[in-house]
Amino acid sequence: MAGSNQSVISEFLLLGLPIQPEYQNLCYVLFLAMYLITVLGNFIIIILIILDSHLHTPMYLFLSNLSFSDLCFSSVTVPKLLQIMNSQDPSIPYAACLTQMYFFVLFGSLENFLLVAMAYDRYVAICFPLHYTSIMSPMLCLCLVVLCWVLSTFPPLLHTLLMARLTFCADNVIHHFFCDISALLKLSCSDTSVNEFWVVFIGYIFLVIPFLLITLSYAGIVSSILKVPSAQGIRKAFSTCGSHLSVVSLFYGTIIGLYLVPSTDNSPANETVTAMMYTVVTPMLNPFIYSLRNRDIKGALGRVVCKKTFFCL
Ligand SMILES: *[C@@H]1O[C@H](CO)[C@@H](O)[C@H](O)[C@H]1NC(C)=O
Description:
The protein is mainly alpha-helical. Helices cover 74% and strands 3% of the residues. The longest helix has 35 residues, at 193-227. 2-acetamido-2-deoxy-beta-D-glucopyranose binds next to helix 2 and helix 5.
């Protein structure tokens, strides 16, 4: 069987990042530091929101879910990347590869839907400020979070089942640092047209529709500000929506740029760098985008540290 073109392979080799050997150590330390910052930053956000009762509002409950999703999203790929860089053993078993793909798509979708729920929350807060607490009840909040989770299970399930049907023959070298759908499809020796169709279809349905919903919410927000233009109204909108808008731009900018814009000269190296953006950089930046210049989070940090250590400045 070994060496035969038709032998079914049991493991893949992840080539990792296209880095010169002399920069391997530097990059390892850099990614390790970025991963630790991601875990710590998101963990602190979650703990603060749980501990501080001032942050028990819909916006922050969604934010804590987003942080949880970010934490899981980068934990699906980065530890494996670090292990590959450190051990020089690039192999990943077939089942582990599909599992990684499943969770990658799962947490990516979850993040996507949570951003829509957060946009709706901002829309209600700006356009119906007087009815905000009655519209965004804890019940609706919980329903939206559960809906996000339920919807997020479909894309990964479909992609994983479709991927499991494919046969992989001689070539098992993935030119990427994780088991990405498109990288795997390139290796398969079966017909991948059905898979490609669903990747594009699901991509459009599950990314473009949420993106349009977010755009609609912001159109509503902008038009409600323009109806009664006041310096104070604009400042309020900026301070409550600015963070969300930055996170949204970062998330959709990279994903739409990579997957949905058909390009002819997408070299593997180019794709890997874009993928680094949304697997490592975006989850790391989200907690900072939300906490810098945010008085609620800073206040909560002060209160929680105070209460836990009996040490107040
Ligand atoms: C997520 O949202 C739910 C419902 O609003 C909330 O109960 C929960 O504390 C949030 N946070 C996390 C980390 O799941």
